[in-house]
Structures
1.
Amino acid sequence: MQDFAGRPVADFVRAFTGGTVAARDIVEGLLARCRRAEPFNPIATLDADGARATADALDARRTRGAEFGALAAVPVSAKDLILTKGLRTAFASLTMKDNVPMVDASAIGQWKAADAVLFAKTTTPEFGHKVLTDSRLHGITRNPWNREHTSGGSSGGAAVSVALGLGPIAMSTDGAGSGRIPAACCGVYGLKATLGRVPHEVPPDQFGQLTYLGVMARHPADLGAGLASMSRGHPDDPWTAAIGRTPFAWPQDIGEDTGQHPIAGKRITVIRRMTGGYLDPDTEARLDAALAFLDRQGARIREMDGREIDWKLDVARIILRANQIERFGEMLKTRRGDLDVSFAKTLDEGEAIDVVMLRRALVDRTTAYKSVQKLFADCDLLLTPTVATPAPLATQDQFAPLVVDGKPIGDLRSAWYTYTIPFNMTGHPAISIPYGRSKAGLPIGLQFVAPWFAEAHLIALAEAFDAETHASAEFPPGFAP
């Protein structure tokens, strides 16, 4: 049994293909970590037998001198919203608790084809409907740095798994920040790629897509490894059609800028508050520290008031709710008692969306896109906090106000995660980078946003930050290898 926790993807692949370690030994070490992680509840479905069988098959192939893919023997997990052939995908719902798909999502199939070892499905709220990770089916997923706090959501299980060393990469989804928010809460790197970079062929509304498959990792370069192995297009996803023949390649996808410093000379626009709301003092202090670091590295920084931009923040909610009620409306009528209360309320919001609201929202999405495009005419990157405060308590209610120092500061959408929402509408790639912790010891994340298809620049930027912070080497108490 080998504990490879904390090591990058390249180390897994090199050790296995070079004959230093057996895939089965990697898996056994991983499964031992999974048992230690149980109090934090990041795993929805553990496939120990399947992981062992895959590892044994890899070991047998190696004895025959076979060639291997880019993720050979790398243990990976996937959020419980992503289809996995032969492995339960319950969507964290009592209504789907016995669902076993007959096919893999394209991105999962690509990771498997790259010889990754899928060992688990990670927790999420029911059908990924909120930015906190708890459900009637799976319970509460807790923050690895303090169990009294939330992991964030809806990819909370993915973030906790990576933070605790349960594989170097995890596949997430992101509909309004669902990958970046838990990454920030749990102190790992979380990437939402450009619209159309990764196939997401399952949702019924392909042309109105707001939800992305993403990657979480402990090491920034592993975001590139994961993305490169899941970015081949799929014919049922029209957004991937244009790049179906040219998948993302790391680090080659940096293109003509290869070799250039990821920070020096870059024009960075900083937006402290999207709508003029509350910003936690510890978070703002870390933002200021990041600005000092960027300045030392030669960045050209300017700040702007987020209130100068009409972000159309409610547009994403309207489109998401309209899609949700179309997809789950019958379930709401016939099985409301089996649904989480907060999910039923979410669907009730969808019932209230009328055609006029939806028609306006579709137009406003284009307005939001053009607004962000204009920002990139004068800058190379946008920088914001990922969320306005470190992780709330695990008991936080999706529909209750966020309370800071005994004072309510607004609902979660308007007070906590305004920063992530716009870029699901506009399609721009965005990353959450861990940058220190609060006085209470909770991780703090910063978000960078880039022009379309500039994921490689975001990953290179994250590498520069990691060289400064060594965040990739940090583990929650008791989980260092």
2.
Amino acid sequence: MSIRVRLLLSNLAMIIMPVILFVLAAFLLFSFVFVDHGDHRSIFGSLGPTEGARPADKQVMELKKTAALTPEKLLNVRYLIRADKELNEQGAALVVRRGDKVIYHPVKDKSLEIKDLPPFGFEGSNRPVSRLGNKLYSMQKYDFYFSNGSTGTLFFIRDADFAKQIFPLLFGSFLFIMLITNGLLTYFVSKSILYPVNELTAGARKISEGNLDFQLISKRNDELGQLCQAFETMRKKLKVSTEIQLQYEENRKELISNISHDLKTPLTAIKGYVEGIRDGVANTSEKMDRYTQTIYNKANELDHLIDELFLYSKLDLKKVPFHFEKMEISGYIKNYIEELKMDATFGQVRLSLTIKEAKEFKVIADRDKLKRVFTNIIENSLKYMDKKEKSIDIVLSSNGETVLVEVHDNGPGIKESSLPYLFDRFYRADPSRNTTGSGLGLAIAKRIIEDHGGEIWAESHENEGTSIFFTLKKAVNEEASP
């Protein structure tokens, strides 16, 4: 139930409940005042069994019986005085009217206005309280006929002026009921609203203190329940964001450490050879050539590392522009293999391309970035290859809406425990090997493939070689975008 509906119902209940309770209280109050709870009979009770009735009740029923059977007896003043006396003992009085003339009425009550008595046959005469003159009376009348056909009426009257005191009591009870019901309803409605608000306040305080290890659970379906759910979602996302930020910070520290280590290695070698030259260790032309060539190679290695770091940083920040186009991947790889064969570095390596299903595959890719992927994968394979006959096999196959590329080598393989970290920056599967390189080759390849909208992974078995797989989107239309 929404808060709007809840407030509307509570406002209606604040109006309806007091009215219902007030009506019930008024009914009970009038019942208490005008009903004799001693024997549950009114002194103006109807004709009926007289067993157990009080004297006044018996007298009322007797007078009604007399009026019905022997009305002429009501013309006897002594009979009426005796009957009135018994009624007086119960605080009531008798008035008898014949036609339009009152033939008997209580002399003591001078405030009683006889002319205000209701006429013969008036149906509204049995009201609980009637005003006669300037006073209130509880009255009941009984109409009958005399023997000659003239009308007659018996009035049984009791002073009800005390009823004026009921109205302040009713007003006070109404105010009391209004205050109680409104107070209770306000308390329960406000409690149902303030409880989740207090929980949200406590949760916000915890977040401001840096505590995200709590849970805000709400089973409500109203606006506050939705707010609690949104707050809990925000807390979870904030916690994930904080954890990612902490991980980024750890990665940054690790990156700085790795960069420092990898930059220091060639710099240390350069400094050592320079000091050797300065100290005169390179005292022959052959040594001098060897020293200067080593310094040159280390400088190139350092330059290559800086280039790799710069490229990886730009890829990480999404600042490397890509020029995607539709291209035929099998022909592209054939040309790339021919280029590698022209390079003396790959002269002793067997390079092959296998195309499954014997068909061409058109993909959306950036030619230069894709070349960098193949180069990094192949160079990484050659670094660790320990066989005399080195081979790199590239296999193309279709995989639904993508083209699957496999680059397989016949190297020593990689431990299964190392495979999940193979594409992490600066990771080396076998750190004990003294291999050159930045340690960023496969990490850069992964970034490039992901920016192509593809995936990259590795499979390997020790002594059986390693396979690097990656996917590229097929060109299904003329758009050149991944």
3.
Amino acid sequence: MSQKPRPLLIVEDDPALQKQMRWAFDAFETVLAEDREGAISQLRRYEPAVVTMDLGLPPSPGDVTEGFRLLGEILALAPDTKVIVLTGQHDRENALKAVAMGAYDFFGKPFEPELLGLTIDRAFRLHDLQAENARLRERQGSVLTGVLTRDPGMLKLCRTIEKVAPANVSVALLGESGTGKEIFARALHGLSSRAKARFVAVNCAAIPEPLLESELFGYEKGAFTGAAKQTPGKIETANGGTFFLDEIGDLPMSLQAKLLRFLQERVIERLGGRGEIPVDVRVVCATHRDLKTLISTGQFREDLYYRLAEIVIDIPPLRDREGDAGLLAHAFVQRYAAELGRGALHLGDDAIASIEAHGWPGNIRELENCLKRAVIMAETNRISAQDLGLDKVEDNLEHLNLRQVRDEAERRAVVRVLARTNGNIARAADVLGISRPSLYDLMNRFGLKREN
């Protein structure tokens, strides 16, 4: 059963141009409207993701007032709709005004159907990505709300978090800075039986070594100069809940032995105190450092590692998460546009291409900061690669053509198998799971000669 064509609303009062556009965009279910009232009626009925519209509409086609009124109504009724405005060839002022109001793009008349068709395809692609973004946020449980992904590896990691969370085991979260380790630590807490108790976090790299011991274990009144009253430490404060040790790789050796004793005995002693205090907490730790290397160089205790890392979860960097940079970027734009009152902002094609090409060494934290800055600095409703401070790259849509992708994959497979079988057609066809005539057809299509 073939998929039903998607509706494309065309708002145009010229019958000849209507006919041309219906013919040019026959891959879609072209829905026509001649004026503002008709366009709103069709919008409510078909809910199209993309609209093309002329700014000059009846009753005064020579005036743009009715067109701007329609644009405002479309964006008010369906803010996610991508509107492509058609203007006079030299009417750049009104075109830019339309984009500032929230239009996706503009084209001057007369236009090249192929170029307009490319823009329509991109508009549908952006609408789908934003819709998927929203669906993912709704589908995920509240404790994993901060994890927005469609990467198979990350989705598997989320399932692992869900399995491990109810078990009362220590978990080590390993990954580069900015990959979201604390989000997963909070998810482990929120999905556990300890969810109603406290989640207490300490960053071992952020507290000076002389203060870290008292921060972790607390102190009695008079234990040192300035200790004016008895003060529980962070571990004790987390009793009944989850204690998160961030950047555990930076924990000084002097405290590693004391932490190990706590993990073994589940009791602590405050500084200046003599009594043992039993504490029931689940310990989750995280670090961007290679703990195995630290162990080999004598900077981290091996026995402590095995106490902390009953379960080890590796979090991949953003550059290894297929498609997630673009997905997260759209989410950050929507969030900060709403927070900062910037209206309907969206990422331009050059911005998306630059985001996908960038390596993001700072991972999600770097991406988030970059998008927040761009939302603040963007002068129009479209964020460009320049607004992001990234190099502009060529967005080659040919790479997104499925037929070319399949052909290239088939060509590589045929070349590889022929090389491995030393050109034996019968053997190569058997390995590829196709008939010899089919293999000959593929070789002819890809210009591969049979070796004599």
4.
Amino acid sequence: MAKLTPPDLNIRPRILYQVAKAAWEGHLFERKEEICRLLQQEFEDRATRRLVANQIRIAMGLEPNNSEEVINEYDEEALMGMGSEPVVVANPEACQDCKGAECEKACPLGAITRDELGQPSIDRNKCANDGYCISACEFGALADKSQFVPLINLLRQHSHKVYASVAPAFAGQFGPEVTAGKLRSALLKLGFNEMVETALYADLITIKEAFEYDKHVQDEHDFLITSCCCPIWIKLIENKFPDLMGHISPSVSPMVASGRVIKELEPEAKVVFIGPCVAKKSEAQLPDLKGAIDFVLTFQELQTIFAAAEINPAAEPDEENPLASWCGRLYARTGGVSAAVGTTLEKLIPRRAEKFKPVKVDGIPDCTKLLEEIRAGNLEANFIEGMACKGGCVGGPGRIIPSELGTSQVNDYSNAAHAHTPVENPQVYSILAKLGHYRGMPTMTGSSKMAAILARKLDPK
């Protein structure tokens, strides 16, 4: 058998498309053997049956195994829901021709090692499911388990209302001409009942974080670590800086907030988060957060589903349902959370805004360095924002466009918001009224009630 070069062996994009296409047409189980056979033929029998079968299993959200069988009798239940940990898995068959160690080098937490035969091993205690190793592996041996098979079945059945909670990093991902309104129309055509901006729930979190800052930062020795967006940032602190855990703001992410709020108002609804982050698949399954989000898709996976369903977002009507403020939309890039909380403090608690000293950092190495400085007492800032990906969420491994372009697109999208801060966003008060009978704009006398509502709904359980 001839040796495969990396471009030959990374067949994941084609397998994702074939699986999505068959699932969308309702023939996945009947076509699974055909897909496996066709892909082997495409690679002129150089890819083993087991390699292709395992890649198909991963695309279906299943664990790779040591069999040439695509699906066995134990897989049916696993294919009915979100899936299970671990999210990032290795297909050892694809590692045979790899002589490098790019996956090891790419893992910022040192979770990957290789044995004398070159087979990768992932330390699950260290792994943050960040997906950096997936991007680095040219052989397709590492992948994140997809969740779109049960999601497509759900959309085709029309048995539940299904909401798409779309991260603000979507701006520009599907082409410069694809506006929020066009993306919404494409998702409705796909079978979703509505698209909501995850950024609206970032607005809620922003207000909550402003209250948390006011409560916890009382003198020059106090500081607050924001936990809003990035599960990898929190994993880093848990693993390497547990002594700093007490400074983390007790807030769920905007993703989880969106699911909780939607299900509070419509308990039977299903919520799908769509963004650039692989680690969100793992976050959605954490014991104290599980149930808020039913499925997680990356932008790359959504693009694959659009292709399988023959939907071109650029050609759809531009029918936006704008919900979020400039602050909430800005969460998608480095510095966005700090800017949002600082600006909101100025509106909500002006006297406290004067002493607000944020610092922002992105990329695991720089995040680690910052945390070491905090531990050593060498930092004067009192609001700490960390993002594991360079550029922030726009740099996530599930993105489609470069992070620099993503940042520019997010800035434009944020500047087009109908409200500047959550304090001026009527959508925020509409949600608060439904959740806790809160009425009116925030005042110093009403702030305690607002804070109580937000804490009750948006603290981790």
